[in-house]
């Protein structure tokens, strides 16, 4: 499966770009948010990609970060949410906004995406709430970057994703606090919750700390 594309933008459409990779052009469909962040024709660009396969369709969808790609993958696993609706949700809210809405059970925010009704929005929140901490931790990873220029010609590549190296243990707490800040928690309450979670679970990784801190911060009663 094609997991990442890096090359030169040949053409920008209303919902896709054509990226030249060593003489082969790949049509990659993107949200308006992603398209707005991409450079113009002739410039280098890189996107993480997901291949959508249907009986009548083979389509590459592109994302600037692994977190956005993961949310799209998880959203399409919810009954009634197709690739187009998933892209609308992520494109409207952004990956941090999706994490916040789902972690807090805010289905109204999910419903704000074009073509997403209240029943689907509620189903998304109910089915994916436990997935939010893991994707929030993933958000600390790098964005897709185009390859550096090379004297040997076009350096563009198509590659499958490689696992990111594990974060050092000392960074788990800071990553967890950053994720909670993205959800709208203040620095002091985030730091307090993460510290309490770390004391209770010293071996917890970033995802474990986020889960534990969210439990501590959840309204009581």
Description of the molecule:
This protein has 221 residues and is α+β, with helices and mostly antiparallel strands. The protein folds into three domains: 4-64 and 143-159, Nucleic acid-binding proteins (OB fold (Dihydrolipoamide Acetyltransferase, E2P)); 66-138, 5' to 3' exonuclease, C-terminal subdomain (DNA polymerase, domain 1, Orthogonal Bundle), CATH 1.10.150; 169-216, Helicase, Ruva Protein, domain 3. Helices cover 44% and strands 19% of the residues. It is built from nine helices and six strands. It has helices spanning 32-37, 66-76, 83-103, 107-111, 118-128, 132-138, 172-182, 187-200, 206-217, and strands at 4-12, 16-21, 24-29, 44-54, 57-63, 157-159. A five-stranded mixed beta barrel has the order 1-2-3-5-4. Helix 6 crosses helix 9 (206-217). It holds the Pfam family RuvA_N. This is Holliday junction branch migration complex subunit RuvA. Its main location: cytoplasm.
